[in-house]
Write a structure and sequence with these properties.
Elements: E1 3-6, H1 14-25, E2 30-33, E3 38-43, H2 47-57, E4 66-68, H3 72-78, E5 79-80, H4 83-92, E6 97-103, E7 118-122, H5 127-136, E8 140-144, H6 157-164, E9 170-173, E10 183-186, E11 193-196
Parallel strand pairs: 1-9, 2-9, 4-7, 6-10
Antiparallel strand pairs: 2-3, 3-8, 4-8, 5-6, 6-7, 10-11
Amino acid sequence: MAHYLEIHPENPQHRLIQRAVEIIRGGGVIVYPTDSAYALACHLDDKNALDRIRQIRRLDEKHNFTLVCKDLTQVSNFSKINNEAFRLIKSLTPDAFTFILEATKEVPRRLQHPKKKTIGVCIPKNAIAQKLIEELGEPLMTTTLILPPDTDALTDPYDIRERLDDLVDLIIDAGEIEYQPTTIIDCTAGNCTIVRQGKGIAPTLD
């Protein structure tokens, strides 16, 4: 049975954030809120936890995972970022954007796209997500909480608890979150291109 923590979405209780991070560091799989949806997450170096997430979502090896980062410093540690991408990410974050970048050697190969060697990164505005990665001191390996055969993410913590109570180690309840996918911007081809227009409002990119 999963731990269940009600954390305030705007003023997260520090002791509950600490408890959540203890579970992550202990190899746990958690459900937590992001800018666009609830998501599954684990420590980026934990293969067993990642395998559990793959099983929960029935993901193959080609799935694109995302590293949720605190700031641009963390982004630059885990991805190769040129000047154009740096300026764009700085201007648009924190917010509901995912940027596709070439991964550095700091990213475990199992998290990278198997052929392109890329990784998604985002810097969230969500207060709980920010406090988690601040306390953890490194990015969270994340994927949106879309359960097969659904096409949208779960929005209600009570529904999440009903469906995942025996499959995850922690569910963070921050109230209902309407599913609005992030805007995806690919910055791997020398310039930045919008791949999917989502919640984040991006400028027109040439």
